[in-house]
Amino acid sequence: MQKEKNRSLLSRIWRITKRTLLILFIGQFVYILLLKWIDPPVTLTQLSNWISGNGLKRDYVDYDEMSYQVKLAVISSEDQLFPDHNGFDWKSIEKAVNYNKKKPGRTVRGASTISQQVAKNVFLWQGRSYIRKGLEAYFTFMIELVWGKRRILEVYLNVAEMGKGVFGVEAAAQQFFNKPAGKLSRREAAMIAACLPNPKVYTLKPVAPYVVNRTPQILRQMAYLEKDPDIQAVISDEVAEAPPKPVKKKGTTRK
User: Fold this and answer.
1) CA-based angle 161:33:157, to the nearest 5?
2) 202-211 contact pairs (CB < 8 A, 24+)
3) What pLDDT does residue 186 have?
4) Does residue 36 sit in helix, strand or coil?
5) What is the residue extent of each domain of the chain?
6) How many CA atoms lie less than 13 Å away from 46 in the CB half-sphere?
7) How large is the average pLDDT for residues 194-206?
8) Mean per-residue pLDDT of the chain
9) Most Cβ neighbours (<10 Å): which of 25, 120, 170, 187?
10) What is the pTM of this model?
11) How many Cα neighbours within 13 Å face the side chain of 134?
């Protein structure tokens, strides 16, 4: 009798578990689909910043309200193969893995694309656990499949941290340059892109030495990559009928 009760209890627990997992799976898929058109209400990174006392400044804006220059700047700085890959820069991942094996005592090097950063920032928490990286890969695949490149870049520029408690390009433009995101100059856009790897350290006000040194490098990459038709297809409202010959991209991704 006791064994039958135990089997019945285990069977009930298993049915509840399956039902819960099914609901969670359907729920996350619906959420991904909704975010193709609506902005994330809040992210775990934003929430943790607010709880830790860093504040929360953000102001989501539409893609066409963002400066052409800032779209070009973040692709040039963070992920030059963004228009071409399926969410993962496999060559950069391989290089990062080899580097981390050869130099285990140093800071771990990553190879996150813009798509991976969006997956992490919107759906997950900060960290380097295998569980989080596995979930990041899943959400990266899904947003590439459902959203498309322009929406991914739009969300990235709205949720990325660009200063202590400052999230998104509109909040950064207002905070550091006293203008809307659509009015950012080429140099201002490059400065914002320069701070992205560590915005609490690579500050824009006061301007950190890293930002001073990195900004000219990004400007050079912007000038070089601007002619690429694949990048133009993502960042421009209109693409020329006869686009220029593609340029060779280096595959820069977040280290």
Assistant:
1) 20
2) 203/163, 203/164, 204/162, 204/163, 204/172, 204/176, 205/163, 205/175, 205/176
3) 96
4) coil
5) 1-34, 41-235
6) 17
7) 94
8) 85
9) 170
10) 0.83
11) 3
Q: What CATH class has 41-235?
A: mainly alpha
Is the Cα torsion angle 191, 194, 197, 203 positive or negative in sign?
Answer: negative
Q: What is the pLDDT of residues 137-171, one digit of tens each?
A: 999 999 999 999 999 999 999 999 999 999 999 99
By residue count, the chain amounts to 255
Query: What is the C-alpha separation between 208 and 225, in angstroms, rounded?
Result: 26
Dihedral over Cα of 30, 35, 38, 44: its sign: positive
Is the CB of residue 184 less than 8 Å from the CB of residue 222?
no
Which runs of consecutive H residues, i.e. helices, occur in the chain? 2-34, 44-51, 68-78, 90-102, 114-123, 130-146, 149-159, 169-177, 186-195, 209-225, 229-235
Predicted local distance difference test score (pLDDT) of residue 22 = 87
Quick one: pLDDT at residue 242? Answer: 38
Mode of pairing for the β-strands spanning 166-167 and 57-58: parallel
Sheet holding 166-167, edge to edge: 57-58, 166-167, 161-163
Q: What does each C-alpha distance from 235 to 47, 57, 100, 125, 205 come to in angstroms?
A: 29, 25, 34, 28, 27
Give the whole-number percent of the chain exceeding pLDDT 70: 82
CB 159 within 8 A of CB 40: yes
Tell me the one-letter amino acid at 21. L
